[in-house]
User: Which sequence fits this backbone?
């Protein structure tokens, strides 16, 4: 029966020891330990928040970079387009100029040719006229070597004139 | 991870084997001592008395004024603890003066049975000890009736075995926690290493899963030191109690559990808010006759909760000690060492189970304390 009956002495010592234990542990163990654990927890959560913030910043920076890159790309594209346009217009211009030049050349060549042709014809005509004269002189000389012949010619010429 | 787990398991096994072995050795001696004692006593009757398992077990789970280490009662080794009694002033002397005192025989007034008690010698002169209780001798004698001593009890503040075990538990807990605190003081708010790596998760477990889980989030902080102290004190005491020779049935003593339960009761009562007392004395939402009817029931409920705490811890720890002692006793009842093949594995199994119970009971005590406190400080919204 005395197993379940409390003993005053032990009760007294338990109380004394437990109260002292509670006091000492609270002052020298629980408060410092829990304080440090709390400080560490705060540190960790702060570090996590910081990481989150950094991540956000990184994201913003990345977006900014992306934008910059996009702009640069657009600019480059515009420049290339511009250059292409310029090049093609230059080529076009050059082409048209060349064409013009060629045409001009052709025209002038044609003119020259015509002029040459005309000159050649004139010269030919002169030559033909000279030759004709010579031939005519020789013929005339032959024709006019005798009186008969002179008369016949005169007659013929007179006929021709009439016919005209 | 598996290696360390295996290593831990190995250590645990070795420890438990040692525990069982020591318990065996201890009780072998105890049994021997018992039989010898009874043999001596019963020599007058001319027959040897049987090994009394109930007496042996009761002797081991109860408090004592000596710390018996090994050997028989007269030739064995004991630490004689100081006796402090309050009887016309404070008297202090070694319990040796009782254990090496004069064995006296008295006849029970009612049953006419012969009973034996010890009369102190030297500074213990004039006092008698019967079943570890100290009485004042009247005319050099102690009277008995129905197996109970009828002498005047003296107020006994002795450093008994349990008180010594209490000091040891408190010392171990302090050593453990002060070392942990020192680590944090030295290293600041860093990840735990060494001892702190072991203690911190348990401290956080008590803070988060016992205190925070049961008490209002804004109020739990105040109660964490109390819950931590109660948890570690009970747990370490339970574990120390399992060690043979060094151990004592401290948390299996009703005085200790009574004090702890009273602490929880006081904390609950002094923390109780208006809503808590309102629910006890004037239950809202029920008719008036019912309110009157509920009042005494609720009032008893305030007391039964810590009462259950007291009984639960006491009964669980005492039961564990009784089972181990009883299993080892199988050998002595049958007076054959071969029974050890049965009793030692069973005692080993129970010892391992007791390691779990040691933690479980500490957890339950702290958990239920937190639950009661939580109910007392809870804000009710209707």
Assistant:
């Amino acid at each position: 029966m005395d197993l379940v009956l409390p003993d005053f002495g032990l009760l007294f010592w338990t109380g004394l020891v437990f109260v002292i234990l509670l006091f000492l542990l609270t002052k020298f163990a629980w408060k410092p330990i829990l304080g440090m654990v709390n400080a560490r927890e705060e540190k960790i959560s702060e570090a996590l928040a910081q990481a989150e913030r950094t991540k956000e910043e990184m994201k913003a920076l990345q977006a900014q970079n992306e934008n910059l890159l996009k702009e640069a790309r657009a600019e480059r594209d515009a420049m290339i387009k511009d250059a292409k346009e310029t090049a093609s217009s230059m080529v076009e211009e050059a082409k048209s100029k060349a064409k013009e030049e060629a045409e001009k050349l052709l025209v002038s060549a044609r003119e020259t040719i015509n002029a040459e042709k005309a000159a050649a014809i004139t010269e030919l005509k002169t030559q033909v006229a000279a030759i004709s004269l010579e031939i005519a002189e020789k013929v005339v000389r032959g024709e006019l070597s005798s009186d008969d012949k002179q008369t016949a010619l005169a007659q013929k010429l007179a006929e021709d004139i009439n016919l005209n | 991870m598996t290696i360390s787990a295996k290593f831990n398991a190995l250590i645990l096994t070795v420890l438990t084997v040692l525990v069982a072995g020591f318990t065996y050795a201890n009780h072998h001696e105890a049994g021997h001592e018992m039989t010898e004692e009874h043999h001596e006593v019963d020599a007058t009757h001319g027959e040897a008395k049987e090994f009394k398992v109930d007496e042996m077990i009761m002797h081991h789970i109860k408090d004592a004024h000596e710390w018996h280490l090994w050997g028989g009662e007269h030739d064995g080794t004991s630490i004689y603890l100081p006796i402090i009694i309050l009887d016309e002033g404070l008297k202090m002397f070694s319990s040796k003066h009782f254990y090496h005192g004069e064995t006296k025989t008295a006849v029970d007034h009612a049953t006419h049975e012969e009973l034996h008690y010890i009369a102190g010698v030297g500074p213990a002169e004039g006092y008698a000890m019967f079943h570890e209780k100290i009485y004042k001798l009247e005319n050099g004698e102690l009277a008995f009736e129905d197996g109970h001593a009828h002498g005047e009890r003296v107020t006994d503040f002795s450093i008994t075995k349990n008180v010594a075990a209490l000091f040891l538990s408190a010392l171990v807990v302090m050593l453990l926690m002060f070392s942990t605190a020192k680590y944090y003081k030295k290293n600041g708010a860093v990840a735990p290493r060494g001892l702190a790596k072991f203690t911190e998760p348990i401290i956080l477990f008590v803070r988060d899963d016992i205190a925070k889980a049961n008490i209002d989030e804004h109020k739990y902080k105040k109660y964490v030191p109390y819950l931590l102290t109660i948890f570690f004190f009970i747990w370490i005491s339970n574990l120390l109690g399992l060690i043979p020779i060094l151990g004592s049935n401290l948390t299996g003593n009703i005085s200790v559990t009574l004090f702890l339960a009273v602490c929880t009761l006081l904390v609950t009562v002094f923390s109780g808010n208006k809503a808590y007392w309102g629910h006890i004395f004037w239950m809202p939402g029920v008719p008036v006759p019912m309110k009157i009817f509920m009042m005494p029931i609720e009032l008893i409920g305030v007391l039964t909760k810590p009462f259950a705490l007291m009984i639960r811890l006491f009964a669980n720890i005492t039961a564990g000690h009784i089972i181990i002692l009883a299993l080892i006793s199988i050998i002595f009842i049958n007076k054959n060492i071969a029974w050890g093949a049965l009793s030692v594995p069973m005692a080993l199994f129970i010892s391992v189970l007791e390691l779990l119970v040691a933690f479980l009971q500490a957890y339950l005590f702290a958990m239920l304390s937190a639950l009661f406190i939580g109910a007392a400080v809870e804000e009710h919204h209707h």
